[in-house]
Amino acid sequence: MKNNVSILVVDDEPIVCDSCKKILTEKGFTVETALNGEEALKKFKKGDLDIVIVDLKMPGIDGMEVLQSVKKSKPEVDVVMITGYGTIPSAVEAMKLGAADYVPKPFTPKELGQIISQVVEKRSKLVAEKAPKKGAILLDVFKKPSKVAYHPERVWVKDIKIEEALDENFLNEVRSTPGGERVMDCMQCGTCSGSCPLSYRMDYTPREINAMVRAGLRDEVLSSNSIWMCSSCYLCTVRCPRQIKITDIMYALKNLAMKDKRFLKKAKSPLLSKYFVAIVNRYGRNHELELTLKFFLRANPRAILKHSLMGLRLFLRKRFSLFPKRIKNINQLRTMVRKAEALGGLR
Amino acid sequence: MEPKIGVYICHCGTNIAGKVNVEEVAEFAGKLPYVVVSKAYKFMCSDPGQNLIVEDIKKLKLNRVVVAACSPTMHEPTFRRTCQEGRLNQYLFQMANIREHCSWVTEDKVEASEKAKAIIAGAVYKATYLEPLEVKKVKINPHTLIVGGGITGIQAALEIADSGHKVYLVEKEPSIGGHMAQFDKTFPTLDCSACILTPKMVQVAQHQNIKLFSYSEVLEVSGFVGNFKAKILKKARYIDPDKCNGCGECALKCPIKVLSEFDEKLGMRRAIYKPFAQGVPNLFTIDKEHCTKLLKDKCGLCEKICPRGAIDYEQKDEIIEVSVGAIILATGFQIFDARQMPQYGYGRLGNVITSLEFERLCSANGPTGGKIVLKDGTEPKSVGILHCIGSRDDRFHPYCSRVCCMYALKYSHLIKEKTGAEVYQFYVDMRCFGKGYEEFYNRLLEEGVHFVRGKAAEVTDFAVYKGEEGKLIVRCEDTAIGAIRRIPLDMVILANALEAKDDAKELARIFSINTGADGFFIEKHPKLAPVSTTTDGVFIAGCCQGCKDIPDAVAQGAAAASEALSLIDRGEVEIEPYTSIINADLCSGCKTCIELCPYTAIEFDEEKKVSAVNDALCKGCGTCVAACPSGAATAQHFTDKQIFSEIEGVLA
Amino acid sequence: MKYTYYPGCSLEVSSKSYSDSALAVSELLGIELVELEDWNCCGATVYLSYEELISFSLCARNLALAEKYDRDLAVPCSSCYTSLKKTATYIQENAELRDKINQALQAAGLEYKGKVNIKHLLEVYVNDIGLDVIKSKVKRELKGLKVAPYYGCQIVRPLHGFDDPESPTSLDRLTEALGATPIYFPNKTSCCGSSLIATNEELAFRMQKDLLLCVSGNDAEVIITVCPLCHMALDAYQKKVGKMYGFNFKIPVLHFTQLMGLALEIPSKKLGIKTGLVPLNKALMAYI
Ligand SMILES: Cc1cc2nc3c(=O)[nH]c(=O)nc-3n(C[C@H](O)[C@H](O)[C@H](O)COP(=O)(O)OP(=O)(O)OC[C@H]3O[C@@H](n4cnc5c(N)ncnc54)[C@H](O)[C@@H]3O)c2cc1C
Ligand code: SF4
Ligand code: SF4
Ligand code: SF4
Ligand code: SF4
Ligand code: SF4
Ligand code: SF4
Fold it and tell me: What is the side-by-side order of every strand in the sheet holding C32-35?
């Protein structure tokens, strides 16, 4: 029963490594081991791993650091912590940093097997969800996408919301932007989210975002995928019975997240925005080819190949230009941009 | 006699004293001309506060009193009574509003104190020139006019008529009954609407003290409290009411079919018709917009059919004038036109219907005989009810319509009972505030109705997923479970907002009352005078004042009736003597004022060749005062001298 | 009639046929479109996501340039239209924003007094020229051609006032004036998802799939668009979307000006009819 999931086990005790390897190999996984953090990271860089099981407490590079660097370079890899302490704080800390699960030491083969198969199951679901359904049916068979779908930016675990941790000023930040003035009027009817073509995939629906802004959940809002999913269709805005300009609020939140760079680790939309801004500041106009190339090189190099055929077809129809067009008075534009920048934005 | 003025400044708890330095202001007022005493007190309107004034009048021989406190609409009558107690003519009292006009609307304490001083100085200066006046007493006409024959108007009419007083009840439509007549059952008890309404309608028809003008409207009202005159337009029915016995033979034969308004255009009626079988009065009416005889002089069938010779194509509209002492408006509401929200598909998607349409579908005397069916005649297997359509919405009506949550529950029960269909409610908040209402909600929860917390975002017929073909799909966020849902349904019922009638503004003008921002008539005070208006003798009740259910509407109808009765029983009313007088010595007889007076209150004395004001008719509007070229006309209590002095005081 | 013309970046290259056809049609209708000298990018949704003030300022520069002429500003791209219109509105409504934008403009030696009237090209045709005039110029009625008039989002939202944000009719009426038949199309104002194509292809494709399904389910022979981004989303990606969901979509997508051009008998070469990636079908070939 070989499957194609490969796992790296990291523990400074060889006996743990070996027994894990034995248990997991029996279950059909491909397993490698490493005896310390340094070795683990080397192997990780080389191989195409799916899951890393790592001991929290190790000399040198410890489990927490391994977790962090794995998540940083390949967020799609799941990390399971082995902890000798089994205490809530260290486990929660690890989960916050993106660990998929943890196994308290000592553990039985059955326990390890269970935890790993849960992780694998979750992975396969996510992969399945990512790949759209095929088949020549007229009607889609709709499967409700799970709300906890995988988001690289999202590292939050559910916990009690402590007043102390809320950001009182968040509401004012949003209220002081054009369009954000009426956020207090929201009656939580859900018309916005029900109308939104994308809310079903958002971490939090536009309605929830409003409530969270009011409550001061700054970090959750700014790190959510919701704000980057908004396609600016303004349907929510024209339908809101309280005439709240939700689309404008989304823009305000994007701006805030942009400024506060820690929220942007792997999100693609901010990247696109950044390149676009650079091009416009350079030429005064957009240059589609340059934008596409730059963006995909960073975000998804493989996609360039996929897109190149379409690019060629567009090119043949003279719908792609190799060279940018710069406006004549670019200096005027740049002076203006600089001044606006110096004014420090809207808030 | 030299004026001796007493000034009293009220703290109004902290309402005034919180912003105005009352002691400082009292000291200031004490130094104003003719002021002999100036005091500040916690609550001037309280007994000790009033006693302060009475004692000072006696001790210090005050002959003018100024109270600086709240708005005169609140307590002017109180302090006038106080003055009377101290044997001072009540018109020698002047009020200064330092609450609404000052402390409530001024941020800065110093500014507030300064403003209070100016307002008080104005009042003191004016008081110097006040003159004693006598109130007028006028006899009250004991009859009452009630406009609108819905449940509210019916209730009010019966209350008054039962007490032995005469009522004129004017109803626009051919039958009384209003919206309640359209319903099948009523929440929360689910009693049959017709069973409780019809007996009352019949009582109205038979009551010797009620004169019913159906198919009629009020065109014009003049006069004042106790003495109104109303012109009623009695539209031609083309039927002799003394001969017609409501047998209905005519309608059976009439070839012209028209969409029935009473059935919300779901069924047909004839050009000669009675809106519904139990209608009161039991008379038929020819609709002149559709009858071919009246339009093109063809047909004439009904005249031949009618066994009693009741048809009269020559009948003309009539105008009748009645005199009454009190008026009650009970003109009800209309529902919001959902075409203004195209996302819900009303008018485009056949099985999206309004609440009133559903009432007719469900009603035993309705077009389907009470069967709940789709446009194709089949029974729905699933029905959605969309709350708050046009209500709680800044683009249409910001208010909550108050009854739709409850009738949505009523519908859920009826649908389940009659068809067994699945019922989905798309709600924002369930508002079940009345007696027995929450219990009713609970019952429906137990009956297995699906309560989806979230306002429907749209209704579409574009099927994407399995099970959606041929259905109406409601898309919404189910906020309780935090998911976006698409729910395929056979029928969608919109809970349209209740709104003020299109002609509310026009009616308000006729009866000299006001409409609020929401379009409904405004009461004098939302808590303390809920059925009175700013025009004495004109009362409002039922849904014309705001959205409400039948229990509340009936309670208001009864309340308005008792207000009217209490007015009538007084026998006479006191009228403020704020009329104008024309000094015969100065009047040059130019008649300028006569032409301008909007109340035709000025007559010309042919003998003396001067104009004279009839103070029973004069409203004190002051038009003549401003117009008179010889300065012969003066407005009592608002003389030029008083006003200029007041201005001087404010600026001093 | 003379208008200042703001083509926007997309119409320069990737949707040049939109611009070409718009110019040709306008000329026939007696409209002179004078391109705004040295215009810059409106910032679109992308710049606005990055920094609102600068983004508004970019639009304000265009408005300041346009204000020099006493003419209305005609905009063919819905996205540019919304950006420009929104900027103009917010400059009027929000004193703080106005002040900051003015400072930025001033630094660059510009000034905007708030006088430019911004109109979408569709608005110009339907309201300023009028359907009667257009009808009178039609040389070849597009009899029986079933057209899906697709508005997308940004032309009617947020509340620009020229047509209903939920069920607009101007494009339907224009289609009728050309002699063609607008089909029933419940999704006509749904978002095409183009702003997500680069960053979240799957979601964007799903939106496009719904649109294409709705259009083909209602037997449309051609889709017309009023925005180059909608056009790109539905035309260039149509094949991929179909492949992903297992449908064989083959519905040509035209800029609405191209369809007008066909009815006005403008040579199809001039209209760039064949620059779309979805091949033309029989129904359309009949008019070429
Ligand atoms: C769909 C629906 C279902 C409801 N179900 C219930 C329920 O189950 N239980 C419950 O308690 N409440 C229910 N209500 C509320 C109920 O309808 C009202 O409380 C009640 O009808 C108010 O009575 P009314 O007499 O004030 O107004 P209306 O019923 O509107 O009557 C007003 C009358 O005045 C007449 N009129 C109007 N203008 C003029 C004019 N200018 N001159 C002369 N006559 C005029 C009208 O023709 C009408 O006869 C429901 C409401 C709706 C919309
Ligand atoms: S539609 Fe408006 S009121 Fe309703 S939840 Fe959304 S923002 Fe709040
Ligand atoms: S504007 Fe954004 S949040 Fe609003 S409905 Fe459109 S995609 Fe959703
Ligand atoms: S008009 Fe004549 S036929 Fe008609 S109901 Fe009256 S009595 Fe009967
Ligand atoms: S005369 Fe008029 S009301 Fe009488 S039957 Fe003919 S159409 Fe009907
Ligand atoms: S009563 Fe209920 S349905 Fe009606 S407006 Fe109020 S909350 Fe909405
Ligand atoms: S104040 Fe003069 S004009 Fe006005 S009602 Fe009296 S008499 Fe007529």
Answer: C32-35, C2-5, C73-75, C118-120
How does pLDDT run across B349-396, given as a tens digit for each residue? Answer: 999 999 999 999 999 999 999 999 999 999 999 999 999 999 999 999
Residue from A199, A204, A236, A244 whose mutation best tests the ligand 3 pocket (most atoms within 8 A of CB): A236
**How distant is the Cα of A280 from the closest Cα of chain C, in angstroms?**
7
Residue pair B131/B91 in contact by the 8 Å Cβ criterion: yes
Lowest mean pLDDT among A11-15, B419-423, B582-586, C221-225: A11-15
CATH placement of domain A6-130: 3.40.50.2300
**This prediction's pTM:** 0.82
| Distance (Å) from CA B218 to ligand 5 centroid | 28
Q: What is the residue with the minimal CA distance to atom 2 of ligand 5?
A: B291
Residue with tokens 């003159």: B131
Residues of B with CB below 8 A from C213's CB?
A: 464
Radius of gyration of the CA atoms of chain B, in A = 31
Domain end call among B499, B525, B545: B499
Which regions of chain A does DSSP assign to beta strands (E)? 6-10, 30-34, 51-55, 78-83, 101-104
Domains of chain C as residue ranges with CATH: 2-120 (1.20.1050.140), 139-285 (3.40.50.11810)
* Among the partner residues A135, A319, A328, nearest to C14 by beta-carbon distance: A319
3-state secondary structure of B416: helix
From B403, B507, B515, mutation site for ligand 1 pocket: most ligand atoms within 8 A of C-beta: B403
* Whether the CB of A61 sits within 6 Å of ligand 2: no
Touching chains, A (3+ CB pairs < 8 A):
B, C
Beta-bridge partner residues of B426: B386, B452
B546 and B457 share one domain: no
Pick from C166, C214, C217: CB nearest B343: C166
Residue A310 to residue C202, Cβ atoms within 8 A: no
- Relative to the CA of A199, which ligand 3 atom is closest? 8
pLDDT at A131: 38
Q: For residue B173, which ligand has an atom nearest its CA?
A: 1
For the ranges A75-79, A101-105, A212-216, B386-390, the lowest mean pLDDT is seen at A101-105
pLDDT in tens, B486-503: 999 999 999 999 999 999
Q: What's the CATH fold of domain A166-262?
A: Fumarate Reductase Iron-sulfur Protein; Chain B, domain 2 (1.10.1060)
Instruction: Note whether B154 and B300 are same-domain residues.
Output: no
List the beta bridge partners of residue B269.
Answer: B258
Using only the alpha carbons of chain A, give its radius of gyration.
Answer: 24
Using 50, 70 and 90 to split pLDDT, how confident is the model at A158? low
